[in-house]
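Subgroup meeting minutes
Present: P.N., E.W., G.H.
Scribe: E.W.

1. P.N. recapped why we're keeping a running log of single-chain structure predictions: easier to compare across weeks, and new members can see raw inputs and outputs side by side.
2. G.H. added today's entry (356 aa).
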Amino acid sequence: MSNQTAGRICAHHHLYSTLARGMPAPRRSSESFLEILQNIWWRLDAALDLDMVYWSAKLGATEALMSGTTCIIDHHESPNCIEGSLSTIATACAEVGVRVNACYGVTDRFDDQNRLHPKVSPLSQMTDGAARGLAECDDFLSSGGRGMVGVHAAFTCCDETLQSAAELATKHSVGVHIHVAEGVNDVQAGARLENLAKDDWLLVHGVHLDRDIKGYLVHNPRSNMNNSVGYAKPTKRTNKILLGTDGIGADMNDEARLAYARLREFDVSENPETVWSWLTNGYDFFPEARHDKVTYNYDFADSPWHSAFTTNIRALSVEVDGEKILQDGRPTRVDLEQIRAKAQEQAVRLHRRLEN
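Output recorded in log:
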């Protein structure tokens, strides 16, 4: 047994949510998943600007590194700040030394007059916002950025937008990164996507998915519990499973521990090696992370059976491409205190916007 592992991979993150911590409470309580989106997350992402995007990504990447996560697959949304958002995220992560696969999550939920439409007709026309989001993905990928084509969710996109996203992904030989049937509002996702989806797509959540469709399924147990959308039963799917956080940090050891407890509650015959495989499946997207070296404060960090039952496992050092980017638990490329201070400044700006 060893105190060292390869780099961890967060297969679904929202780095912009790093600034959400401590945000003002919504004006009214949310009784459903759709109301959570409307009252919290759709207000927050609409308030973002590039400074907020940069510092949230930089703090999120630094915190990921400090937990032993060296790679992030990020799903970004900032409908009033689309152009340049992906390169901003990529720059922030590169400065920390963390690899990122980025996409912009296109949506038709804001019409061309910037009015919110929570449920979009499949027969609607693509909005200007969705077209700009696709252009941002196209520009980022065309310039050599590592990423995918992002889609928010089928229920906030018309068929034209879904088809265009699939075509753009094929053009760039990448997959589509999309929330699928996370809540009951998106139960038609399987029917609308099954003829578009390909093996390299990332299907995020899949809690209410009513059929098998092609792609990797990204399980986000903590987020699903927090939003009370139900258990996704990932072991009942034929898809290859990855593990994400849906924006609640990027401590994959902690997420895996919770994922295992939730899995055992569902099926007492399961064991920790199942969840460990969800972690290692992430190397399909970041094969070079297998050569990263993460040293922990625990001698059995490479054991599924130990990690599943051991709390407070901390990364002491991280080596990526031969460079120590974490030493004695602190990042070496960037100033941790400065990042925290700058991110807090942006969080205050963001929270004031939300209050107003």
